[in-house]
Amino acid sequence: EAQLVESGGGMVQPGGSLRLSCAASGFTFSSFDMNWVRQASGKDHELVSTIDAAGESVCYADFANGRFTVSRDNAENMLYIQMNGLKFEDTALYFCVISNNSDPLSWGQGTQVTVAS
Fold it and tell me: Are the CB atoms for 48 and 69 separated by under 8 Å?
């Protein structure tokens, strides 16, 4: 079964940076578009980005506004998001998700990003 394990979260000051990683297994990673999704405490899930299967095209939510960069390494079944210029409102649990998987109950544990001074 598909498994996605996020890592790299932590606490940073406003304006700081984090690089999150997602290790994929149990499916043909290179065949699927991938999303980053986040959820702030008590709030709805929010799509951060989508990258196509080949890593040739990325779409970002407006709030990223050039601050985030998504990449993938299909040879190693890895997905990344580089987050710069972090803001308080970026505080959330971040998930990597197969793009066609809209059921949060099937997602992994995510990795927590906390932006605080």
Answer: no
Q: Are 92 and 59 in contact (CB under 8 A)?
A: no
8-47: pLDDT as tens digits = 999 999 999 999 999 999 999 999 999 999 999 999 999 9
User: What's the distance, CA 16 to chain centroid?
Assistant: 17
At CA 24, angle to CA 63 and CA 14, rounded to 5?
30
Q: Is the dihedral of CA 11, 13, 14, 15 positive or negative?
A: negative
Strand pairing report for 34-39 and 58-60: unpaired
For the chain, percent of residues with pLDDT exceeding 90? 90
* Max CA separation in the chain (angstroms): 41
CA distances (Å), 41 to each of 23, 46, 50, 70, 113, in order?
Answer: 24, 12, 22, 23, 11
Tokens in use for 67?
């601050």
The DSSP 8-state label assigned to residue 116 in this structure reads -
